[in-house]
Design goal:
3 domains; ATP-binding; EC 3.6.4.12; HerA_central; 22% strand; P-loop_NTPase; alpha/beta; binds magnesium ion; ATP hydrolysis activity; six-stranded antiparallel barrel; binds adenosine-5'-diphosphate; Rossmann fold; eleven-stranded mixed sheet
């Protein structure tokens, strides 16, 4: 048993089945520590939710003011030795006969309060020996090793303001997933990397061999693999007759070119021209809409990149680097394409269970989106709803949770929340995360960069963690501002000197 921190007080409200106060005798007691109290054969677990200090010499305003007028209280009285500390503990549950259950009776006043035992604490919180090591529990020497199945199976979201450490946490998580042994179960990973932040993995001595990067502009899919349903999802404003012509064209070409090497956009357009099933103006309007897709240059005759069937491998990561793509529409169409293909291949058992990680998820599953902006939302919501059965997991990362589809967000059964200060975002997170009460919500604004709270399916109780350092190479996103500024001035000066010398 760890050393005693203090004893439980009897006050009007304490101890109850949900909370108690204790007189602290150990100086090092901190808010956020886990404690335990022996209750017969059972052990009660709790969490220090607040720490107060008090001193009888400073309780009454009028006497404090009066004494301080002449000289200070500490110079006249032994006030220092009357300072005492009270800890408030929120009771989490009881460990009884090898099982964790709710507390049905309060601990007794006078009982000793001890720092929680590390091994018990790990199992109490639901951590696993072979779990994903994301960091450590604050104030305790306990690694936060979260169960992969519990985290991934019912999807998860990483939510926080910009710069709070979302991508850092995601990188730590990827390191853990890529380092798993075959016997522990490994998933394949696909990343929608909006800013090219994860590409450092491909140069890393350890993870490089497990990472493939595909540039967004290099993504290609043979036209013959696109079904009319997907194509009409990409161009949602088509009229019913336009849709009919498109459907007719795609299915006829599929038949005609069955033995050929696919067909080109040009062939699709000339087929539409030649068909007599519709009026000219319908065909013209359809061709105008198709020209947008053509502009994005990802529909090919037979080139396919990435080749999902061979490139999606257990313990392997495929990064789709969207850094060079400017058009949000194109990014949404590519996300819709990739997510749909992954999910279909997985349903047929042709690829291993996978995790699809989407950065800036609010841009791809927007809560209030125009029809044309919503192309990727429906497949993301489908995977969120049905993915669990087919080993298809989602990780949605967002700094604008207010804009994220509530359907998708509510299917993310674990939320990892880092620092958030915007009150709207805070309210939204509190509403969409079951495990967050007002006490936890209050602490979210006080989190520092790299500190997170995990709530939901992956843990037994909401838990604060400090995210560990990363082991993998970080891609430098340009030099710091002061270096860039200095370099700019130096270049200007050099130019000016050259001009002077020339004159
Ligand atoms: N746990 C951490 N330990 C050390 N540095 C961190 C940690 N979390 C974030 N950082 C640093 O803080 C900065 C912002 O983190 P980042 O993950 O890019 O934030 P976000 O993706 O939320 O905008 C980065 O320079 C990153 O290296
Ligand atoms: Mg980021």
């Amino acid at each position: 048993m760890n050393e005693s921190l203090g004893v439980i007080l009897a006050t009007e409200e304490s101890p109850s089945t949900s909370e108690f106060s204790f007189a602290v005798k150990e100086k090092n007691v901190k808010k956020g520590q886990y404690v335990q109290v022996a209750q017969g054969h059972a052990i009660l677990f709790g969490f220090i939710s607040e720490v107060f200090k008090s001193n009888r010499y400073f309780e009454r305003a009028e006497s404090v003011a009066e004494f301080e007028r002449t000289s200070s209280i500490p110079s006249q009285f032994p006030s220092d030795s009357w300072e005492y500390v009270i800890g408030v503990v929120k009771i989490l549950g009881i460990f009884n006969k090898g099982k964790f259950e709710r507390a049905f009776s309060p601990p007794s006043p006078g009982s000793s309060v001890n720092l929680a035992d590390n091994t018990l604490l790990r199992s109490f919180l639901g951590f696993e020996e072979s779990g994903l090591h994301l960091g450590s529990i604050e104030h305790h020497d306990v690694p936060a090793t979260i169960s992969m199945t519990r985290l991934l199976q019912k999807h998860f979201a990483i939510l926080a303001m910009s710069g709070a450490g979302k991508s850092h946490l995601a990188s730590v998580l990827l390191e853990e997933l890529l380092s798993r042994k075959k016997e522990d179960g490994r998933v394949a990973i696909v990343i929608i990397d909006i800013h090219g932040e994860y590409c450092g993995f491909s140069h890393d001595p350890v993870f490089g061999s497990k990472t493939t990067v595909v540039e967004g502009s290099e993504i290609k899919i043979p036209l013959k693999k696109i079904s009319p349903e997907i194509m009409t999802e990409w161009i949602p404003h088509l009229s019913a007759p336009q849709r009919d012509v498109l459907r007719h064209a795609l299915s006829s070409l599929k038949q005609q070119k069955k033995d050929a090497d696919g067909y080109t956009f040009k062939e699709l357009v000339s087929f539409i021209d030649s068909t007599d099933v519709s009026k000219d103006e319908v065909k013209r309007a359809l061709k105008r809409s198709l020209s947008e897709l053509k502009r994005y240059h990802f529909l090919s005759r037979k080139t396919e990149n990435p080749k999902l069937l061979s490139q999606i491998k257990p313990g392997h990561m495929l990064i789709l680097d969207f850094n060079s793509i400017d058009s949000l529409r194109k990014k949404q169409i590519l996300v819709s394409l990739m997510a749909r293909r992954l999910f279909n291949l997985r349903k047929k058992g042709k690829i291993p269970p996978f995790l699809l990680l989407i950065e800036e998820a609010h841009n791809f599953a927007r809560e209030k989106a125009e029809e044309s902006e919503a192309v990727s939302r429906s497949i993301i919501e489908t995977i969120a709803r049905e993915g669990r059965k087919f080993g298809s997991s989602l990780c949605l990362i967002s700094q604008r949770p207010v804009n994220l589809s509530t359907t998708a967000l509510s299917q993310c059964n674990t939320h990892i929340i880092l620092r958030v200060t915007n009150p709207n975002d805070l309210d939204h997170i509190q509403m969409s995360s079951e495990g967050i009460d007002s006490r936890v919500a209050k602490n979210i604004t006080g989190l520092k960069v790299g500190e997170a709270i995990v709530v939901g399916e992956a843990v037994n109780y909401p838990v604060f963690i400090s995210v560990r350092d990363r082991k993998s190479l970080k891609r430098e996103k340009g030099a710091p501002l002061h270096i860039q500024a200095k370099e700019f001035e130096e270049r200007q000066e050099k130019k000016a000197k050259n001009v002077e010398a020339f004159l």
